[in-house]
Amino acid sequence: MRIYIFKSDANKELRAFSDDPSGTKLPGQFRPWHAFGVIAAGKSPPHRLPRDQIEKAIGDRGFQLWRMKPKLETA
Questions:
Q1: Which long-range contacts (CB under 8 A, 24 or more apart) does 42-51 make?
Q2: How far is 9 from 55, CA to CA, in rounded Å?
């Protein structure tokens, strides 16, 4: 399965995975969504996220949400 990576304009830490390159399966309350990456079949997702769980969520709901941790500023 090819997995597309999206980011939400409504919440800048929120990201999503979907098998739909247009993002129409993603939750409406966090729109607009913008695709910014793709994970080829058999490749590992970023940040050591478990591909099997992502694929299961996509099969069940059409997407998987995840949140980026805010970057800490160093002094």
A1: 45/3, 45/17, 46/5, 51/3
A2: 24
d(CA 21, CA 63): 11
Tell me whether residue 61 is in a domain: yes
- Whether the predicted pLDDT of 75 surpasses 70: no
CA distance linking residue 24 with residue 35, whole number of Å: 11
Q: What is the pLDDT of residue 18?
A: 98
Q: How far apart are CA 66 and CA 16, in angstroms?
A: 6
Q: Is residue 73 part of a domain?
A: no
The radius of gyration of the chain's CA atoms, rounded to the nearest angstrom, is 13
pTM: 0.89
**Domain span at residue 23?**
3-67
pLDDT in tens, 33-57: 999 999 999 999 999 999 999 999 9
